[in-house]
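Private note to self, pasted from the team thread so I don't lose it. Backbone tokens:
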């Protein structure tokens, strides 16, 4: 059984066609149609291209792992035949993915390019042993480093309670963000731009229900 509705409680269901919104101009409709395919194409291209370098921290770590066996050279920044020192290996690894870091460990610690890593570290994070030695986090108590003269780039395990333990874990700012972040920001700006253009060329009217 339907509840009884009085005239006072009945919602108006008619609207006045004389007060309907005017159709959008042809230019506004064209902008709206043009923006959507553009955004769709750019999104598809970004999704196809991004997986190969979606995380620059991991890409930098992969690059550094391929340098295992290269000799230690004081002040060295590569290539492998010329060798690396501890910070030279780290700087070169991140330079391979288009990221710039200060050349020395002291410069890194004083810069805004790195931030303390909160939570569990990830491969490619920076692991400092004091302020004079930097390595790359690999897994649990294992780091990738260019240790000292006479040694080669290698994976090294450190042991809790020993005299050689990390003093700080750091992440490189924006190293975990790949092209998709810039792509999302660009798409957002395009959508706002065309949204504003459409409304600048549209005569908006209120729609009133028939009384």
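Design output:
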């Amino acid at each position: 059984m339907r509840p009884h509705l009085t005239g006072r409680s009945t919602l108006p269901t008619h609207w006045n066609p004389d007060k309907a919104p005017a159709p959008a101009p042809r230019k506004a409709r064209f902008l709206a149609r043009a923006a959507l395919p553009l955004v769709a194409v750019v999104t598809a291209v970004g999704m196809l291209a991004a997986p190969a370098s979606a995380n620059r921290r991991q890409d930098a770590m992969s690059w550094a792992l391929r340098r295992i066996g290269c000799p230690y050279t004081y002040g060295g920044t590569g290539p492998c035949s010329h060798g690396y020192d501890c910070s030279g290996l780290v700087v070169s690894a991140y330079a391979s993915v288009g990221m710039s870091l200060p050349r020395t460990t002291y410069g890194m610690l004083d810069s805004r390019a790195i931030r303390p890593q909160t939570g569990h570290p990830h491969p490619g994070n920076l692991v400092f042993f004091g302020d004079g030695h930097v390595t790359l986090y690999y897994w649990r108590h294992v780091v990738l480093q260019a240790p000292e003269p006479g040694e080669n780039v290698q994976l090294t395990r450190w042991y809790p309670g020993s005299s050689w333990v990390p003093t700080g874990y750091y992440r490189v700012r924006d190293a975990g963000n790949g092209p998709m972040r810039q792509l999302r920001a660009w798409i957002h700006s395009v959508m706002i731009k065309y949204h504003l253009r459409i409304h600048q060329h549209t005569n908006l009217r209120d729609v009133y229900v028939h009384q």
